[in-house]
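One chain given next:
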Amino acid sequence: MKKISLLLLSALLNVLSLPLSAFAVSPNEITVSAAADLSSAFREIAAMFEKETGVKALLNFGSTGMLAQQIEGGAPIDMFAAAQKSFIDDLEKRGFILPDTKRIYAIGRIALAVPRGAAKLDSLKGLLRPEIKKIAIANPAHAPYGMAAKAALERMGLWEKVRDKMVYGENVRQALSYVETGSVDAAIVALSISIGSDINYTLVPQELHPPLEQTLAVTKGGRNPGQARKFAEFINGPKGRPIMKKFGFLLPPEMK
C-alpha cells in the first residue's frame, strides 16, 4: 500500500512540474506526450500537421514510464506515444486510454554511440575497452530504450562486466546529450535521435533485445480527443510514415 502511495505521489509531482504551456488551452491545440526518442521525428510531423490542419501539437517529451505516471496522475494529455507497447497496455487496463485508438506506429532501434572524433565502436564488445570508463543509457527502471540497452548487454554476456561504468539518463535524449558533450565515453541510445546528431554511431542488431513496439493511443483525460485522433492518423498516414522512416524507425508490416 505504501509503494502504491509513493507511486501516486511521484505521478502527482510529475504533473505539477509540467509548465502550463505544455497543456492545450484552445480548440486548435492538442497536448501530446511522447517518448524522448521521438523528439526529432515528432517535431517535424507536428509542424507539417499544423501547416495542413491549423492545429498545433504541444509536445511533451520524456521517458515513457514517467509520462505514463503523469497521465495516471491526471495530466490533461490528449495523446500518448510510448516507446513500448506494454505501457499503453497497462494504461488501457487502468482505463486511461480510448482502446479503439491503440496502434503500433513504429519499431524502434538502438545504436552504440561515441563522441564525434572518438574511435568508432563496431560492436557492444567494444565497451570492454579500458579507455571506455563511462557508458550512458536511459534509466532501465522506466525507459524502454534503457531496458533494450540492458537486455542487449545481458544477451551478449556483458552487463555484469560493464554495469559499474553505467551512467543513467532520465531518458534516452539525456543519455545522448552525455555522449555528445563528452561527459561519457560511450552510450547506447535510440537510432532515431542518433541520426543527424554530433556523434559516431553503430546500429545494434535488433535480435539482441525484445522489439521496441512503439505504440500510441488517445487518452480519456484529454481536452481535444477529436483532433488527437486526427494527429494519430496523421502519424500513421502517408505524410507521417516517411518522416518516421527517415529517422530510422521500422514500420510494422500492416503500415507499409
